[in-house]
Amino acid sequence: MSIQSHLAGTWKLISAEDKDPNTGQWVPYTFGNPPSGYFIYDNTGHASVQIMTTPPQQITTPDSPTAEEALAIFNAYIAYYGTYTVDSTNITVQVEGALDPSQVGTAQVRPYELKGDTLIIGDQVTYKRTLKREK
To answer: Could you tell me how far CA 18 lies from the centroid of its own chain?
Structure first.
């Protein structure tokens, strides 16, 4: 069975942590507690990653955020999609579309560790995102 077939599926984000470069301590709840997001990798080599900070950013008028609200929304959401490849150490998404236009056309390379129904994305030294397979 290929690495891609082991990875294929829908993964729910259950924790996100980053290491504070000043203290060296892990900072939990990078995207809120609990974080909200899904990473989807399919058998045809397509991927979609979406993370929203919780609680969601509030806006005064539905569908019409102010400039400040729009910036807050932009800073509280990560979304991109494209095709992916996977090897024994990295998942690489060739970004075709993204909330952040500077990501379009880039390769987003992420180290990972897959243990059964748990996927850890990140170098686990400076950041880690823990996901569980959706059944």
So the answer is: 13
| CA-based nearest residue to 100, from 80, 116, 121, 82 | 80
Per-residue pLDDT of 12-32, as tens digits, reads 999 999 999 999 999 888 899
Residue with tokens 């056309």: 105
Q: Are 8 and 38 a contacting pair, CB within 8 Å?
A: no
Q: How far is CA 39 from CA 2, 49, 60, 110, 119, in A?
A: 19, 4, 30, 12, 10
Q: Is the pLDDT of residue 1 over 80?
A: no
pLDDT in tens, 27-53: 888 899 999 999 999 999 999 999 999
CB of 116 closer than 8 Å to CB of 132: no
DSSP state of 24: -
User: Residue type at 57?
Assistant: Q
